[in-house]
Structure formats: structure tokens, C-alpha cells
Write a structure and sequence with these properties.
By secondary structure, the chain is an alpha/beta fold. It has two domains: about 80 residues, lambda repressor-like DNA-binding domains (434 Repressor (Amino-terminal Domain)), CATH 1.10.260; about 200 residues, Endonuclease, Chain A (2-Layer Sandwich), CATH 3.30.870. It is about 55% helix and about 10% strand. It contains 13 helices and seven strands. The chain has a seven-stranded mixed beta sheet with strand order 1-7-6-5-2-3-4, with helices on both faces. Helix 1 packs antiparallel against helix 5, helix 4 packs antiparallel against helix 5 and helix 11 runs antiparallel to helix 13. It starts with a helix and ends with a helix. This is Transcriptional regulator.
Amino acid sequence: MPNIRQAREALGVRLRELRQSSGLNGREFARRAGWLATKVSKIEHGKQTPSEADLRIWAGVCGADDEVVSLCAQLRNLELAYATWRRQLRAGTAARQRRLSEIEAKVGLVRWFEPSTVPGLLQTAQYARAIFAQVIAVHGLPDDLEAGVTARMDRQRVLRQPGQRFHFLVTEAALRNLVCPPEVLKSQVEGLIASAGMPSVALGVIPFGARLAKSPVHGFVIRDEALVSVETFAAELSLTQPEEIRLYGRIFDLMRESAVYGKAARKVLLRVIDDLSALVTGNEEQSP
């Protein structure tokens, strides 16, 4: 995933292309902008982050005032996009869940793709407890495990809020990854069957053996047409550029083409439950 440096370089490339399209070399551009030539070079090579005022001047010198809104949006995306988990979670996992609840209460459509775990809005309390315990341990966070689980369960009330729609896509691998004890995962998959029956929820499952038009590199959440959230091991990326949102929308549609729904999805879930039941029974038999 892109980091701050790469995002700044991408903005610099775009600004350089605007300058070149205007027919100005770096020195003449700097003279018209009233800047040192070194400032122009640093911005174009991603060594310096321009301000919004700089972007307005840049667009004006290039005769591209119609680019100002998009350029400023790209700058804000650069500044806000990369939030490390330690910074996000320093107030605790529960605080983050409450922030997400506030965001989701205002969203009409959520499209959520997960290749490795069950989406948070569909998690059982036991499954969520296992996920939060991992997060707290890996990032060395204050232990607010039970508060975090409670807040996640409260957050799920949005699924019953009138006028909102949720489209979830999960891979079969996400239903089988033992990020928790097998009996907990079995209960979680059983819970998905109930969730799929909710009026606001569409649940698609991409089964093993399905042909994929795009490799499932990572999970993501699209909230309306305004925000894409992408989680990495280190941070959460918030993408707001229209072209980024359209790209993730296309990827979601590609993944959806490989998914099964309704009775076919239930069949996959029941197969997973049977396999997990056998695993639970085998573990019980091996216990002293």
C-alpha cells in the first residue's frame, strides 16, 4: 500500500505534468509564482509538501484553475490518509468502535470485502474478543478488551437501522482461518447464517475453487461513494479521491462476480460448519 512519501511523490508528479503541459520550464514557472526554483523542484520530487495556497498558485500559473478542487482533495487525502494503529487506538479499542458507529450511522450503503476474517459488523462477541485480544497484544495497547467487545456489539445496531444497506463479501478462507478456537469459529459461521437473513444485509461468499478476476490482496470497506477504508498491519488508510473510490468499486464488483448468495452461500456455510464440528470433536477426543 502507498505510504506518505509515495503519496507526496504522486502529487508532485501530477503538479509537474501540469507545469509541463503549460509549456513552462521550472525556472520560468518559479519566476511567475514568485518562488525559488528549489521550491518547485522539491515539490515536484516529493521532497516538500505544498500547502493549499501553493496549489492554488500552481494551478493559476499553469492556467488550470479547474484543477484546484481536485488538487486540494489530493493534498487532504495525503495528510489524513495514513493513520497508524497506535495513534488510532491510543484511546482504546472501544473508543475507535464508537467513532466508527458515528460514521456508519450516516452512511446509506456499506460495501465490505474481507479475504481473511469475518467483517466486524457481523462478528459474534466471542470471535470479536479473539480479534481484539490479538490487536491489543500486537500493538501493545491498553487492555480494554471487554469494553471494546461491548462497543463492537453496540455498533452492530446499525444493521437494524431503517434505510441502510450492507453488502458483505467474504472468502471461504475467512470462514476457516483459525484466528480463534474452532468452537468459537463454528459459532461465528452459524451466526453468519442468521445475519444473512436480515433485510438490510446481502452476504456473498467466494468459495474455494471460484475463478477470481482479481487476486484478493487485502480487505476494504466502501462507505457510500465518499470513503474507502483499507487496513494494513501498521495503519488504516482512508481514501477519498473519486478515482480511488471508483477503482475499489470496480474491484468489489469483480469479487462479487465470483461469489455465491442465498441457498448457494448457505450451502458453503453449512459445509464449513460441518468441518469445524469435526475439528471440535477431534480436539475433544484428544483432550486428556
